[in-house]
Amino acid sequence: MNATHTPGPWCTGEQGGDYQQVTGCGFIIATVNSWWKVVESAQTKRLRMEADARLIAAAPDLLEALEKLVSDMHDTCGIHPQAGDQARAAIAKARGGN
What we know:
Number of helices: 2
Order of helices and strands: EEEHH
Oligomer: single chain
């Protein structure tokens, strides 16, 4: 059984001292924590946490764009076959496949 993800757009939401939320459709999709890396400065932790949250928030847009590229891609269009394989593998992973 493959469930579908919460529809985008997703965005970064509430932020506390050691967490950043990613939200979509009024729900919390993820909470990114920064507390586990004690060797980093507070500013580095915050910047890394914000970057991770932005990447997660972009996931639905990235998946949609990659699916569009793969569906429009033809073997003769000059795209390296390994890149096509990687793209299809990433889509399968996002969709819950192998």
